[in-house]
Write a structure and sequence with these properties.
By secondary structure, the chain is mainly alpha-helical. The protein is built from nine helices and three strands, in the order αβαααββααααα. The chain has a three-stranded antiparallel β-sheet, sandwiched between helices. Strand 2 and strand 3 form a beta hairpin. The mean pLDDT is 91.
Length: 213
């Protein structure tokens, strides 16, 4: 569901970069191009942050930073539980027609530890194989009551599913071998010197001092 994906991405961004202000969350998510593939309106991000705060999933701190007011967010215990639920569901469940929630969850996998990532992706691989067999058998037996052009379109979706399966086998090899970093590992990627993320990191350290973290 689109609402679940938006909630997952916002909770995940806060969890990755907390304490973090709303503008930084918006800028980071826009750098992921979520407006294009997750249909998140940039202007709706602040409203969503307010909604998640009202639900108790985020904690908002109103600080004065260099003489200007700034709202800074951290994820709460209930927010972490909700984020874990959303990531787990999105990594494991296969929707042959829509892969947006999986892509969002995969983007947030650095929040997981390695055993959890292996477990979720292994379940997904089994689901992909099961879905492939079910639809392939239905098409072969001509048991799907659909017009020919719809069946042809389903063949396209199955080809995409099989491509994902082959890709996922390789990804699991990378996860198991340590090629990809997860929670508790040393970072496996360093942004360019002019990347805005460095300023966000400096702000985070300052916010922590202000919040006495």
């Amino acid at each position: 569901m689109a609402g679940d994906t938006t909630r997952m991405l916002l909770l995940g961004a806060v969890a990755l970069f907390e304490p973090v202000n709303g503008y930084q969350i918006r800028r980071e998510l826009m750098s992921w191009q979520v407006d294009r593939w997750a249909n998140i309106n940039p202007g709706s991000i602040y409203h969503a942050l307010t909604s998640l705060t009202e639900k108790g999933h985020l904690t908002r701190h109103d600080l004065v930073d260099n003489g200007r007011p700034v709202a800074v967010y951290e994820i709460s215990a209930t927010g972490r539980s909700e984020l874990e639920r959303l990531i787990t569901t999105s990594l494991r469940a296969v929707d042959i027609y829509n892969g947006v929630s999986f892509y969002a969850a995969f983007s947030l996998m650095p929040l997981l530890d390695r055993p959890a990532a292996i477990s979720h992706l292994s379940v997904r691989l089994q689901a992909l194989e099961r879905t492939d067999k079910e639809y392939d058998a239905a098409i072969g037996a001509k048991s799907l009551a659909a017009p020919p052009h719809t069946i042809s379109g389903l063949h396209l979706q199955l080809d995409k599913l099989r491509t994902e399966r082959a890709w996922l086998v390789e990804v699991l090899d990378d996860v198991r071998s340590g090629k990809l970093a997860f929670a508790g590992d040393a970072p496996d990627w360093t942004p360019a010197a002019d990347d805005p993320g460095w300023q966000m990191d400096a702000d985070r350290k300052r916010y922590r001092e202000m919040l006495r973290r």
